Amino acid sequence: MFDAVAPYLAFWGTGALITLVLSVAAFPVAIALGIAAALAASTGRGPRARIAVSYLALFRALPEVLVIFAIFYGSTVFLRRLEAWTEISFPDVSPVLAALVALSLQFGAYAAVIFSDWLRVFPRGLLEAGAAVGMTNGQVRLRILVPLLLRQSTPALGNLMLVLLKVSALVSLIGVEELSRRTTIVAGSTRDPLLCYAIAAAMYLAITAVTSTAQAWIETRIRATG
Questions:
Q1: Which residues of 56-76 are buried (b: 16+ CB within 10 A; e: fewer)?
Q2: CATH number of the domain residue 68 falls in
Q3: pLDDT 10s digits, 121-158
Q4: What's this model's pTM, rounded to 2 decimal places?
């Protein structure tokens, strides 16, 4: 039974690696977007706050698959029209790059909600203490606010990473050959979908286990230094 799928293990392994790399690459971008959006929205006034609130409302409301399609096909249409206007040839949109942008934008909105919740209960005395010793507003945010936000949000961000790993399967719909898409290819070749998807499930569980172990280690380190 396993002899039929054995030749595809390396092919599968590459798909699992693409899933992991794509998620790991999108996650820090999402965190950076989330922090920026949360800080901008927390001011409650000005154009930056309105842009941040609109960003959160839009990407929290849209399904992940629709965002992926919009980024990939929207950028393709834009480049083709730009070619017609400028008569300059542009390369085709990379599905991997489009997937990275879409996941970063979508999960940046989710991360912003996490940071916004912590901002509501953040001890303002720490910010005032930073200002009292001569720090600028930017230094207070960079040296006090952001590190503490990341520290307090670690458990929720770890869960968000696990969700990102699972949602990344949707990028197969635009041609990214990550784990789920490669599993479909192997299942079609071997005509044993039950076994193939069982192996894919085991791979997802292994990736999740590694991610959860890393999260637990980070949380332990944070408690030890606290």
A1: beebeeeebeebbbebbeebe
A2: 1.10.3720.10
A3: 777 777 667 777 777 777 777 777 888 888 888 888 88
A4: 0.89
The answer as to whether 220 is a domain residue is no
* Number of domains the chain contains: 1
Q: Determine, yes or no, domain membership for 204.
A: no
Q: Are 165 and 93 in contact (CB under 8 A)?
A: no
Q: What is the pLDDT of residues 4-33, one digit of tens each?
A: 788 888 888 898 899 999 999 999 999 999
| pLDDT surpassing 70 at residue 210 | yes
